[in-house]
Amino acid sequence: MSSKPVEQLSQVIVRFAGDSGDGMQLTGSQFTSEAALLGNDISTLPDFPAEIRAPAGSLPGVSGFQLHFADHDILTPGDAPNVLVAMNPAALKTNVADLPRGGTLIVDADAFTERNLQKAGYAQNPLEDGSLDEYQVHGVPLTSLTVGALKEVEGVTPREAERSKNMFALGLMSWLYGRSIKPTIEFLEDKFGAKRPEIAAANIKALRAGYAFGETTESFAVTYEVKPAKLKPGTYRNITGNQALSLGLVAASRLSGLPLFLGAYPITPASSILEELAGYKHFGVRTFQAEDEIAAAGAAVGAAFGGALGVTTSAGPGIVLKAETVGLAIMLELPLLICDIQRAGPSTGMPTKPEQGDLLMVMYGRNSESPVPVIAAGSPSDCFHAVIEAVRIALKYRTPVYLLSDAYLANGSEPWLLPDLDTLPDLTTTFATEPNAGEEFLPYLRDEQTLARPWALPGTKGLEHRIGGLEKADRTGNISYDPENHDLMTRLRAQKVAGIAGDIAELEVDDPSGEARVLVLSWGGTYGPVAAAARRVRANDKQVAHAHLRYLNPFPRNTGEVLRRYDKVLIPEMNLGQLLQLVRSQFLVDAIGYNRVRGFPLRAAEVAEAVEALVDSV
Amino acid sequence: MTETNGNLTAKDFRTDQEVRWCPGCGDYAILAAMQSFMPELGIERESTVFVSGIGCAARFPYYMNTYGMHSIHGRAPAIATGLAATRADLSVWVVTGDGDALSIGGNHLIHALRRNVNFKILLFNNRVYGLTKGQYSPTSELGMKTKSTPMGSIDWPFNPISLAVGAEATFVGRAIDTDKKGMTAVLRAAAEHRGSAFVEIFQNCPIFNDDAFDYVRDDKEGVNRILLRNGEPITWGKDGEKALRQKPDGTIEVCASGEDGVLVHDSTHAEPSLAFALSRVTQATHGGTPVGIFRNVERPVYDDLMADQLREAEENKGKGDLAELLHSGETWVVS
Question: CA–CA separation, A497 vs B163, rounded Å?
Fold first, then answer.
């Protein structure tokens, strides 16, 4: 324990920023592990460029990782950091504007060379010109201290020694916030120990040197403590959205008894699902890295025809290519899960940044009348449960289902209370095994309640049948161009999807006082900032109700009734008002949009401001 | 695969659906040949699946009393890959046309062939778009006048056999719609081949490109058909007087059958170059058209490799335990 005075804090937001090659993601995620193991509630937001290694020291090459940890339950990675660790001038320049006045700034003083300053566009050294006077600046020569500390480690090149400076910084931060560095030591031994023990040794030494530096330097007078949060009892692990989604797919495969088949093509920010699932072959998981997005979806449909749990994952630019396959799955009435990890912008846009811009595409982006259920995950760990729910609907109603996540949920992390397996839903499905109309098998004879058609697998004797994208006659599934039949089939497909509203949870409203006249309605990845905004508003003694939509199609059956209960409805979204359009057109409710498309999660403080203004107006 | 006790007939493979191809279409002959050939395979109807894309040929599955899927333009190889990779017990056939396979679906075709997915691809090549009513296709000859090329096509055509061999397909063959015996022989070998089998079938379109293949379809005396027979010298002509031989640069020339160096056909040659050279032999360039099996080699099959990895992972890690998986990584307990 530190010999310096300890100050208590209820929460801290730290942002690590450096060059893409500086290992900021690793530093951030290790600091997260340390905080999580200590029992803090946590929420993280990695923010990195699409370029793997933009030119060193350049502004586009800056990679960041923000971590919010607290002694109470938190909902977001935080709007702005209290502490900024900047490994070079470019990292300082791109991030310092987010640091509130009085915030703590730790910089690698060694990196502020003339050349680096020039690359970042600084005419003068900001450490010397007084421009940072409003912050608590700690200029620590991280590079030279690290290189000095590693002088005696054998087999490590000067370049490798220098690259360990992120561990020195992590050691320093661990000391500052009273975190044990043990988990990181174990991680480093595990990661490098077998192949490059000298690298493991160098990193561990740098980590320890950073920790010891905090203890001995006069630069830091106090250390801080953030006590464990009072979370629900149980076993936790830290998890990102894409990890949770992958585990949810494996769980859904087990719960349904169907082998999982994933067709995917590498695309940011969805690729890690393909990579993660490729490691679960011992769960019978087949991953197919296809030649393109279209083939990825097509193969998943082919696998579904054969009785597998067919899944395809992508982001917007890939989802748009899968539209024809989704249309086919609508006509085939086979289960298919399409996961859209939304990213910012049309076309290639901003690949690593989040947005909620694909809602109307997945709702309507197909030819003709082609309804598809849409479900959106609300937090990183919720991806696990949301994907299981999406599979439940796909299997029960024999329909393609869209699951929406986004780049923030995909890469952001939070503690996850591990579910008891017995509480997960039974996804067992039945296949047709015998004729369903006397001697005959009618592949489009529907279940009266769900309107789902029978799923008869190739290999089942006596049920041989042909399906396809052409309109089919009711019941028989034969090709039909009959006008009345087409009208009927179009309505049946719509009714089937609309009917799911009776099989999903009602929309819940969080309104502690019961007196709110303003409702704020969120969906998907904006759950955290919007719920945090509602808390802020209530902390100012104002009343606001919050409802969060997990189901975007169909909407929960009480949605219209909930919306009409309030004088005003505010819909914050990371798009220009897509849910807003759906709500206005389906419920004739004059809702108001709050829209930001910065490629960054909504800021709770800004949403709170908008909510308060509306509350004050009624 | 469930095997029959040999009591199926061609009739068993017919469906109650009215066949909707134009009178005189080559597809009728292919369908009839297929229906009478299927019982020979000894595979139950329920274990056979036909997957097609879009186009005239793509209607095929509706007329085969097996399992079937009429899917999306060009995508049949991708869809069938998902089916074959998850269901090794099925006999999977892809039926496609020149537009479907080589234009919109060109990418899926070459990747399926290089992976060596265990299915058979039958490409009905009529060198024209039929269902959309007469536009030129990727196999239409240079200068061909169609509705969309009133002054003649300026697209250099694909040679489907060259393309398949170039993609290193492990089985590549060619047949003619009206040559039931020859087609059945190629289909039989394709069915016996484990992995991707690609068969180009010259198919007459009486409406938009009639008589395009008359030089081989009506070739009763064998003056234009070069029948490829494994292990035998490649000769043809009325009296077998013409032959093929390979020049030092690898290309193929025509010689008299009595001359030295007549090429002996070897479809099992590991190197695709020989099959490729043969695929360059055409009516226009050599005065003859090879039919039969160009290439038939063994290579690990995609579906088998995938299944092997699953088995190996289970052997090494044990059968996956869900509770253990969820609890993997660093966990902590809040009490």
Answer: 44
